[in-house]
Amino acid sequence: MAPPPERLKANYNVSVKLEPFFTGGKVQVSKDGEFLLCQCGDRIQVIDTKYGKTIRSLIQEEDEVITFVIGYDDETLISSHKSSLLRHWNWKDGSVVRTWKSLHLTPVVELVFDTTTTLVASGGTDGSLKIWDIKRQYCTHNLKGGSGVYSIVKFHPDPNLPIIFGASMDCKIRCWDLNNSKLLGVLEGHFSVVTGFTIFNSIKQAVSSGRDKVLIFWDLTTYSQIRIIPTYECTESLVPIEFGKPMPLLKVTDVKSPHVITAGERGCLRVWNVKSGVEVLTQTDSLVTQPIVEGAPTITQLEYNEINDHIYVITFDHNIIVHQRKDLTLVKQYAGYNDDILDIAWFGEGETHLAVATNSIHVKVYDIETMNCTLLKGHTDLVLALATSKSDFNILITSSKDNSVRVWRMSQSPFQITCIAQGNAHTGSVGSVALSRTKLSFLVSGSQDTCLKMWKLNPIQHESDQNLSVLHTVVAHDKDINAVCISPNDNLIASGSQDKVAKIWNSSDLKLLGVLRGHRRGLWAVQFSPADQILASGSTDGNIMLWSLIDYSCLKTLEGHESSVLRINFVSKGYQLVSAASDGLIKLWTIKTSECVATMDAHQSKVWALAVKSDDSLLVSGAGDSTLILWKDVTKEEKEAAVQEKEKRILEEQQLANLMQKGLLLEALGLAIHLDQPFRTLNILKDLMDQGEGALADLEKMLVKLSTNQKDSLLRYSTTWNTNSRHCHQAQMVLNILLANHTTDELFSLPSLRSSIAGLLMYNERHMQRLSRLRQNTAILPYTAAKIQATRGEEVMETN
């Protein structure tokens, strides 16, 4: 039975596109805390902190950004580039105000503004430090003395003290007086790169951090050390706590001592009393991932925003974690870069969240409304597959390269996701999982060890990290198992493997029921139909095959993908199918007609992940280009738009007929061009030419006033008319008007002009030759008539 037309989908359009916005480098927060500015490859991305979406990109083609800084006016931004250029931006509208050469011999790696946003300092890798007046547009100082790359440049926070500090590769912090460019003092004590420097202006003291695992407390009146504080970690960044302000939740009670918050290779925030050298608080619930390489920096930067009192923790794996400073509670998380997206699943009651498996040991869970990202920690190697069930979207199954599967539960009040069970019986990477669909009684996993395992899932798991028990195990395939799925009634299990076959199993005892052979390459996807006894399979051979579950024969093959089919999902209650392939294309198929209804092209790499919302209104895809795309069903909107367009066209055609009947040819001409009706346009022009010179003068005025698109349409019509000698007069008239009333630049702004020139020239030459022959023939006639008349006159005279 054919499905009702209103049930079938016609197309999905991009609703939300989440692209990488931070790939390493610098991050800064706007003064009001509403925007994040992050380095992302060759550009600076402006991110809305409320929704986590990119609203603007600051980019100059083929000129990669090295670093940037925002001024205290919260509008001015200066960026340095690999081309040794400095650019002045207004980041709020994305415009470039000015570009100039940095005058450094090597790239600029440090930029900083003074408190008035008048001066900007640039520290290069050549050991020089330059000061620029961005309003008067000239270099005011060239400070020398540093050695190698500058790691820290900082103006004194008191605008009345023209002093600047700079730390370079020799691990010394130099202080210059900008009034006379003289060196005031050198802070010596670090034995590795200086990574942080903050000044307590009220007590004329400062604190610096370095990778030599110490903090140094300085006296800025004598430029000497007050105390060296061992931290036992490479410190990458520090932020001060206001002097004299008690913060009991951070155990800052001694208001007469300066305090700082530091972060580094341990991956946690630490609060220090720098006067006594005591660590007063260590963060115990840090969400930062530990790097695989021992000793590598875990936290690369700290940013503090005074207005919202938030600390932004920037990690080595491109995550941005936001804490409330007063108690270090978690506010929000952003995932700046996902790398390859391997799998996606709708998660949470009402499918309000997306669970995403990337090239990471953590699962990222996004809130669809705010794009707040929560990291699920538990696996010790890359997470490969995810699964949820319509019976309870609060349960999530994950599998990993660590040979384990884990069960997670989401609770809403308060929002929390906890691991409630895990299973560790596989001996290879677990590449696919599936969850029972009618009730949460079991789950199935397929692994690189070629085994298919069925796990018992208790209905209610209150304790954390319970061990899952294996109900059945079978060596299912000869090669890696890439896909498993469970039928809608939980009676059947399907598995797909690199050995080119799919197999059907009885879920009660994992007894083999059927083998589906037909694909020429390994399988990546299998899926049961929600309506019929059909299984769909996708393979590296580019084909989607539909199999009968009664006799296990191939019913039909959907051909259209030119590369590996990696994911398939049924939509429209089983009447249609959505597939994703390694060429970045997503296709929508109608099964009854085997027709590809729509092709969606928005990814630049392999689409590894595809998930459809239970009501088919949204589907989400993830690919190797690190992009997550939400697609919205626009079938209803497109049908309504088509009906409205049809009604509008009928009314306009009726209006055109009325205008022609009334003899209002100039108005009818504009409407005919708008409706893209070249034949009617030609007939109207013929009628106007028959009316004489007055009508032609009005026609010329009217054609000059046409829009660029209408003139382009008229040019295309004329090019076609010009190929026929019966219509060439109208074509030549239109061309004459266009050429006589427009400049060369205006003519070349018409999209069709360049493609029309060759055809016009060729047929114009033919028309010219034809007219020349006609002119010659018309000149011969009077001559012949005169000769005949002269001959007759001579004959008459001879007769007389």
TrEMBL record:
GO terms for cellular component: 90S preribosome; small-subunit processome. The keyword Glycosyltransferase does not apply. It comes from Daphnia galeata. Pfam families: Utp13 (PF08625), WD40 (PF00400). It is found in: Nucleus, Nucleolus. InterPro entries: Utp13_C, WD40/YVTN_repeat-like_dom_sf, WD40_PAC1, WD40_repeat_CS, WD40_repeat_dom_sf, WD40_rpt. WD repeats lie at residues 101-142, 187-228, 376-418, 423-458, 474-506, 516-557, 558-599, 600-632. GO terms for biological process: endonucleolytic cleavage in 5'-ETS of tricistronic rRNA transcript (SSU-rRNA, 5.8S rRNA, LSU-rRNA); endonucleolytic cleavage to generate mature 5'-end of SSU-rRNA from (SSU-rRNA, 5.8S rRNA, LSU-rRNA). GO terms for molecular function: U3 snoRNA binding. Its main location: nucleus. The keyword Oxidoreductase does not apply. Keywords: Nucleus, Repeat, WD repeat. This is U3 small nucleolar RNA-associated protein 13 C-terminal domain-containing protein. Residues 653-787 form the U3 small nucleolar RNA-associated protein 13 C-terminal domain.
